[in-house]
Amino acid sequence: MRVAVIGGMLQGVEATYLAHKAGWEVILFDKNRGVPAEGLCDTFYQIDVTREKELTRRLGTYDFFLPALENEMALSKLCKIAKQANLPLAFDSKAYDITSSKIKSNQLFSDLGLPAPLSWPRADIPLIAKPSGGSGSAGVRRIDNLDDLQYIIQDEKGEWVIEEFMEGPSFSIEVIGSGKHYHTLQVTDLEMDNNFDCKRVTAPTILSKKSIRKFEQEALTLAKAINLRGVMDVEVILHHGKLKLLEIDARLPSQTPTVVYLSTRINIVEILAKIYCQHSELILPEVSSPKGVIYEHIEVSPEKLEVSGEHIMTRGGPLKLLKNFFGADEAITNYRPRMPSWSATLIVVERDRETAWAKRCDVIHEIMKHCLIKKYMDPQPLSYFDSCQPKEGF
User: Fold this and answer.
1) Domains in the chain, CATH or no CATH each
2) What is the pTM of this model?
3) Of 356, 309, 308, which Cα lies nearest the Cα of 202?
4) How does pLDDT run across 204-233, given as a tens digit for each residue?
């Protein structure tokens, strides 16, 4: 199968990685050269997909089109062209319209009676402010005083969602929908850096079976409410023993689909092709013994090795996939020998989570030894009650 991936940033890396695991040929489109996924694809075309004529000339003979971007104008053009040419475009524009707006998403949570953070002014300081149309941690700010709150309220440039600040572990789940039938995939655990950017994804989850069932039920309720056709990512936080919905996104996410694939062998990109190309019924295999997976991002410099949010993977140009990287099963990285500063997404897979973590620590030791680094940092969001410093050591 030949798949055209539209967008070469982090979602493009995810799409390309999983498409290759399915044995497909990947043709990547992006308006910029030097994007992370350019080093992972089979063929790259520098194209601004908002220019219809330019895109139409390059459509070629592709079996499947997979958007991996969040530019509204580009997505609109793609939908228009796909409809005119009857192309299989794996994108649910109606579901995306709801989930790409935190205001609309929060209203959906309320309408369905699902647990979510309290909104200001019902919630008191500390608060968290998020751009309504933002993705992931982009633009997220913590509010610890009235001056910061007043600044956000008076900001005329953006539309903000202001909610209670909650502490606790975060979790993610993907839902696959055909518009009629819906299935949840594996729950994964998320860890954030001090900027609330996801630095590490692990599986299987530490959540109890009872909490997993509750999470699955809520995710299915949301998918049915928006008549999902495709994939949707749902993120929650466990706050004071209760799961609270943080956000939903009806598009291919980054990070978690790879972890789900490596742990369960269920490939979300393959399932999307079945929905949009084969129009076949959704039948997922049973997973009896999921593997342990550690998936994390590191930034290496002569001074230190720091675990950091996924944003660091956008700064080093085209990435490549390497096997047995300092003991890690795989790494997506811009590393080259004798390069003083570089970044990598380390991927470790073992029979269970505990064994995977031990192997991961060996990988970190090996990198630090090879690069003659003594300082290790693994920052996390600051607690309101404890201004903790980034952790050193592991």
Assistant:
1) 2-91 (3.40.50.720), 97-113+170-278 (3.30.470.20), 127-164 (no CATH), 292-377 (no CATH)
2) 0.91
3) 356
4) 999 999 999 999 999 999 999 999 999 999
